[in-house]
Design goal:
single chain; Threonyl-tRNA Synthetase, Chain A, domain 2; four-stranded antiparallel sheet; Rossmann fold; 2 domains; alpha/beta; 9 helices
């Protein structure tokens, strides 16, 4: 027996967490609780697709009552609870009751390249591995417990620039030439392997297809440029309004929906508008 038999045949919803399902400042999903319950009653999978780590995402899934797959560290890995699908990709590893499908690079490779990048472009940066828990708390507003979980990185390095300069485009290109990627999230740049949320969404959609004969449609909800690849990989893309009342730029999709509500209240609004 496996769980894919109870998956709703109509929809799968992929969602960013910070600034989208979770309030940008408080990390609360309180304004989206009704929509989460509505989706749970219909067995519609809600798949977090986040820059957060495995450990952080597991904690949020537990809080929000989500028990399906999730995507971590900006598309670096797809994590599938044991017994969720019958058919799995050939190459997976097991971590705490979840099958891990890696699409990115190991953290040691990431840190080696981070230092190379910093030296080559004389960047004044500070990476997560150089910060203590208190500094991460002050940069993110996470409580100590969650900040500790954020430090348990497997595939990517968030970093800040210490000067007010923006990251040179040449550094981004250099990373890509070397099969790495630099993405911009809400608070940090992220150095990761040659993947993104869109690649991970496509990989997970394929696994859903292999396990479900019926056709389903996909929704994607995000708020930042690191979500655009995810929104391009779904049938119904949604940009939620950001805390400053604007939408992040740089996304050109014809069928993009924009919410009136900010963060989780926009998330709830989108769910009720799309799924009748
Ligand atoms: Mg976000």
């Amino acid at each position: 027996m496996n769980r894919s038999f109870s998956i709703n045949r109509n929809w799968v919803l992929f969602t960013d967490l910070d600034g989208t399902l979770l309030d940008a400042d408080t990390y609360s999903f309180a304004s989206a609780v009704q929509a989460l319950r509505f989706l749970a009653r219909r067995n519609i999978p809600v798949i977090p697709c986040t820059s957060k780590t495995f450990e952080e995402t597991v904690a949020i899934c537990a809080d929000a009552g989500l028990d399906g797959p999730f995507i971590i560290e900006n598309g670096s890995a797809v994590c599938i609870p044991e017994n969720y699908f019958t058919i799995l990709p050939q190459k997976t590893s097991l971590k705490k009751n979840a099958h891990i499908v890696s699409l990115g690079r190991d953290y040691t490779d990431i840190l080696t390249f981070f230092n190379r990048l910093r030296n080559k472009f004389a960047l004044t940066t500070r990476g997560f591995h150089e910060m203590d828990t208190a500094e991460i708390q002050s940069l993110t507003g996470l409580d100590k417990q969650r900040a500790l979980l954020a430090q348990e990185r497997g595939f990517s390095e968030p970093f800040i620039l210490l000067s007010d300069k923006t990251l040179p485009e040449a550094a981004v290109t250099f990373a890509e030439k070397n099969e790495f990627k630099i993405l911009r999230g809400n608070r940090f740049y992220h150095l990761l392997g040659n993947t993104d949320k869109g690649k991970a969404v496509k990989a997970l959609k394929n696994i859903f297809r292999q396990n479900n004969t019926a056709v389903f449609k996909t929704i994607g909800i995000g708020d930042s440029p690191n979500d655009w690849a995810m929104l391009q990989a779904v049938d119904v893309p949604v940009a939620v309004k950001r805390a400053d009342g604007a939408y992040a730029g740089g996304l050109n999709i014809n069928n993009l929906r924009r919410t009136n509500g900010i963060g989780p209240s926009g998330w709830q609004e989108a769910v009720f508008n799309i799924i009748k």
